[in-house]
Automatic annotation (TrEMBL), chain A:
Highest taxon, organism lineage: Bacteria
Family membership: Belongs to the NtaA/SnaA/DszA monooxygenase family.
Pfam family, one: Bac_luciferase
Domain named Luciferase-like: residues: 26-306
Name of the protein in its database record: FMNH2-dependent monooxygenase
Record InterPro entries: Diverse_substr_monoxygenases (IPR051260), Luciferase-like_dom (IPR011251), Luciferase-like_sf (IPR036661), NTA_MOA (IPR016215)
Protein species of origin: Agromyces aureus
One Gene Ontology molecular-function label: monooxygenase activity
Residues given in the record as FMN binding sites: D56, T100
SUPFAM superfamilies: Bacterial luciferase-like
TrEMBL record, chain B:
Classification via CDD domains: Nitrilotriacetate_monoxgenase
Keyword Flavoprotein on entry: yes
Species this chain originates from: Agromyces aureus
Binding residue positions for FMN: T97, H147, Y151, S224
Record-stated family: Belongs to the NtaA/SnaA/DszA monooxygenase family.
Domain of life: Bacteria
Keywords (A to Z) from UniProt: Flavoprotein, FMN, Monooxygenase, Oxidoreductase
InterPro entries: Diverse_substr_monoxygenases, Luciferase-like_dom, Luciferase-like_sf, NTA_MOA
Example of a GO MF term: monooxygenase activity
Residue ranges of domain Luciferase-like in the record: 28-336
Name by which UniProt lists this protein: F420-dependent methylene-tetrahydromethanopterin reductase
Keyword presence, Transmembrane helix: no
Length: 406, 471
């Protein structure tokens, strides 16, 4: 029996079209309220979406790639994604919650403990989309380092020095975050009244990490969370990020624009896994797609045109822009699944309109998730990870026993 | 006249990581599971408290080179758990300790603004600093700042955060579908800021629009001269450690007296000391409860640990039921140095020799063993008695201007607040000194009866205008 393809929905503002906030379904005056985010997450959960992601950045949205603008006709302003996810955690039960948290300016210790806490508050439904921040204007918000303007040609050629450095740092951040997640063994809290010991300190381990970019000495302050290791996702468009995903992530989001790229990019991801010597479970690969869903192809195209006109220019995206009917989207998802994709991350062009269309027409056709439990790992068919220290202790114990037996 | 009575303000400290939580008590559950925070938050809300308060951990405490294992260890990330709590409560303020040394203003300001948005104006920030390389080893900036510098950084940090929070006007977002204008015409540069100071050199656009309170309520706990100056400039609540009546009154008068120098009124700052309580149907029963709690908090091993912190040396060979060491801190075994034996604890003993001598004198005069002495000196002010007696004492403190209220610290998680809410709160309400309902939709600042933020800024600006105009 094959699993149902994973359906992730990417939540951001009023949707992924810059004019989405003008759609009749939008609630533009509520984008910064508790009710808006609670409603979206609960709606997606009722629709049986597997996980929602929350976009973020350490700067203001802009219509230009590497700087801010002064437009007043698009959504500006955003709440912290990890905290939105934390907020909806206790008022949802089954849906995975995957915020974007950047690796460039945020302290790895805060990243680790924040995501552990999300995992605790959601009872095991936390994930993390790790993202680098490459832009000079975001760096200026911190003032701790200067970042040159990105060399667009080098970037397009797939070999920007700057992106490579950012990704190397991201690899270290994910590594140290994972060490912090493992720093408490599951049974470290013993509450042994007879000896007066609350913890067994032998089962708590310092990260003791020294890398190129930073060092961290101690253990996490948070005991092991329900999933131990929340799932880590990376969005990539090129070889270097695929390698980061292969070494560090559990899921990769990729952006094939047509049939040929659907084949070639998946191949590149698998090559990156081989090249980096990935062991264990292969990356789960999700295709990114921006969707405008209506009951006829013409209506969907017309809806997009209307938004484009309101925005003053056609929508552009790093991902495939899909306009069509729910049936056509199902065909698209089937085609990706047939190629070996694990699922899709759908970016609704309009919120809640396109999410409602998904809920009404697409998800019912896919059937219920066959998840065996309530954690995000269980939902996506991932094993509970072993704690590296518990595993090491067990191995040492077994070796000792074997030695004694011999 | 009933309505002339000063109102008591209450906050609740989540009983997490400290040496006072009775983790061996059968009533004690988890300090990690979210259900514990939910129960605690809802109980505080049922008791019409102003806010719940969470401390912060940045590294696990160590004693004699190893993780300290006798007290509760492990806690969630402060911001994430407060934001989750916002979803399951409606009125209660959500205040967390967040370090100004190991965070960056842009990031922390947007997180606090997010908490304020999602809670509908219930966010508070207990600003602390660290001078501690031990904690710093977990962060990119590493190292530490010496005492003066960390207050310079904290001061500039809070000022910069306020610049960021002020960078969006409350009416910047119009979201008018018809005209296609999301931002108001004069808000094209919403969030723009530029700040160059000794600690921070930053510029750009702040990403989070103005939140219901605009600034979270600023709480502060430092007690040095620098700390008191910082508090009188920025703080709206002081989480005070001065809880004995006379001491509390002296502190209250000193800090409130400094406010005028910053153009602030006495009402713009609330002082809330941390206190514990033990209640019973009779005074004798309450005393018995208090005694049992003390014995459970200060076990023999814990008593020796406290002593080791002060003496700065290994004292495991001492009997907790016997006398204190005859030598002074610094004069013991040469292998340890005072102050280095424990890491990750707030410095509790600035003058070790003097304190040790006083402790020895007290134990000799009163015939106290190590454990009895530690129970006597290490505890916080505790209100012990019947609910009616405790309520009358709390009331007296507030009416006589020793405090504006209290931060109540329970001894078990998450039920440590239940008895106080069920038994003491009704007594306070009966006296007409405590709210029986929240004002619908009130922010934390409104519940604390604090002036709106920016009022002082506006007053200063008006005064400057006036000077220019007249001049």
């Amino acid at each position: 029996m094959t699993r149902r393809p994973t359906i992730a929905v990417a939540l951001d503002g009023a949707g992924w079209h810059p004019a989405a906030w003008r759609d009749p379904s939008a609630r533009p005056a509520e984008l910064f309220t508790a009710r808006y985010w609670r409603d979206l997450a609960q709606f997606a959960e009722r629709a049986d979406v597997d996980l929602v992601t929350f976009e973020d950045a350490l700067g203001l949205q802009s219509s230009t790639l590497w700087s801010t603008d002064e437009r007043t006709d698009q959504v500006r302003g955003r709440l912290d994604a990890l905290l939105i996810a934390s907020f909806v955690a206790p008022v949802t039960q089954r849906i995975g919650l995957v915020p974007t948290v950047t690796t460039t300016h945020t302290e790895p210790f805060h990243v680790a403990t924040g995501l552990q806490t999300l995992d605790i508050a959601s009872r095991g439904r936390a994930g993390w989309r790790a993202q680098i921040s490459g832009s000079p204007h975001e760096a200026a918000h911190f003032g701790r380092r200067t970042v040159p303007n990105v060399d667009i040609e080098a970037l397009l050629a797939g070999d920007s020095e700057q992106i490579r450095a950012g990704l190397d740092e991201a690899r270290e951040v994910v590594e140290v975050v994972r060490r912090l997640w493992d720093s408490w063994e599951a049974d470290a809290i013993i509450r042994d009244a007879s000896t007066g010991r609350f913890i067994d300190r032998e089962r708590i381990h310092g990260a003791e990490y020294e890398g190129e970019h930073f060092s961290i000495a101690g253990a996490s302050i948070v005991p092991r969370s329900p999933q131990g290791q929340p799932l880590v996702a990376v969005l990539g468009h090129q070889t270097i990020p695929y390698e980061l995903a292969a070494t560090s992530a559990d899921l990769v989001f990729i952006t094939p624009l047509d049939e040929a790229q659907s084949v070639s990019i998946l191949g590149e991801v698998r090559d990156a896994e081989v090249r980096t010597g990935r062991t264990g479970r292969p990356l789960s690969v999700l295709a990114e797609v921006v969707v405008v869903l209506e009951s006829t192809p013409a209506a969907a195209r017309a809806a997009l045109e209307r938004l484009d006109e309101q925005n003053g220019s056609p929508l552009t995206s790093d991902a495939l822009i899909f306009t069509g009917t729910p049936e056509q989207l199902l065909e698209r998802i089937d085609a990706w699944t047939a190629l070996g994709y694990d699922g899709v991350r759908i970016r609704p062009a309009r919120l809640p309109r396109d999410l409602e269309q998904l809920a009404d027409w697409v998800l019912p056709a896919l059937g219920r998730s066959d998840a065996a439990g309530t954690t995000l790992r269980e939902r996506l068919g991932f094993e509970l990870p072993e704690n590296r220290y518990t595993a090491a202790a067990a191995a040492a114990g077994a070796a000792r026993q074997n030695g004694e037996a011999a | 006249m009933a309505d002339a009575k000063r109102q008591v303000h209450l906050a609740a400290h989540f009983p997490g990581v400290n040496n006072t939580t009775l983790w061996a008590d059968p009533l004690h559950r988890s300090q990690i599971d979210f259900s514990a925070f939910e129960h605690f938050g809802r109980t505080a809300e049922r008791g019409r408290f102003d806010y719940v308060f969470l401390a912060e951990g940045l590294r696990l405490r160590e004693h004699k080179g190893q993780l300290h294992e006798l007290d509760v260890v492990g806690r969630p990330n402060t911001l994430a758990v407060l934001t989750a709590l916002a979803a399951v409560t409606e009125h209660i303020g959500l205040v967390g300790t967040l370090n100004a040394t190991f965070n960056e203003p842009y990031e922390l300001a947007r997180q606090l603004s997010t908490l304020d948005h999602l809670s509908g104006g219930r966010a508070g920030w207990n600003v602390v600093t660290s001078s501690d390389a031990f904690h710093g080893a977990n962060f990119r900036r590493g190292g530490f700042l010496d005492h003066g510098d960390r207050y310079h950084r904290a001061n500039e940090f809070v000022s910069l955060a306020k610049e960021l929070w002020d960078s969006w006007t409350a009416d910047a977002i119009v979201a008018d579908r018809a005209t296609g204008r999301f931002l108001a015409e004069d808000a094209a540069d919403a969030g723009a800021f530029a700040h160059r100071g000794a600690q921070f050199d930053v510029r750009g656009r702040f990403a989070t629009p103005a939140s219901p309170q605009r600034y979270p309520v600023i709480v502060q706990a430092g007690d040095s001269a620098d700390g008191r100056d910082f508090a009188s400039e920025h703080a709206e609540v002081i989480f005070s450690r001065h809880s004995a009546f006379d001491e509390a009154r002296t502190f209250y008068a000193d800090v409130k007296g400094r406010l005028a120098g910053w153009g602030r009124t006495e009402d713009s700052l609330k002082i809330l000391p941390a206190v514990t309580f033990a209640i019973g149907d009779t005074q004798a029963e309450a005393e018995e409860v208090a005694r049992e709690v003390s014995l459970a908090q200060v076990t023999r091993r814990n008593a020796i640990t406290v002593l080791e912190q002060l003496w700065g040396t290994d004292l495991t060979s001492y009997d907790a039921d016997g006398p204190l060491p005859a030598f002074d801190p610094g004069e013991g075994p040469a292998d340890t140095v005072s102050g280095k034996i424990t890491k990750g604890w707030a410095p509790r003993f600035p003058n070790a020799v003097q304190i040790a001598q006083a402790w020895r004198a007290q134990s000799e005069a009163e015939g106290l063993s190590i454990r009895e002495l530690v129970i006597k000196v290490a505890g916080r002010q505790s209100f012990i008695g019947t609910p009616s007696h405790v309520a009358s004492e709390l009331d007296r403190y507030v009416q006589e201007r020793a405090t504006d209220g209290f931060v109540v610290v329970g001894t078990t998680s998450p039920h440590g607040l239940d008895a106080f809410v069920d038994r003491v709160v009704p007594e306070l309400q009966e006296r007409g000194v405590y709210r029986t309902e929240y004002e619908p939709g009130a922010t934390l600042r409104q519940n604390l009866e604090l002036p709106e933020p920016g009022a002082r800024v506006a007053a200063v600006r008006d005064a400057e205008e006036e000077v220019r105009r007249v001049g």
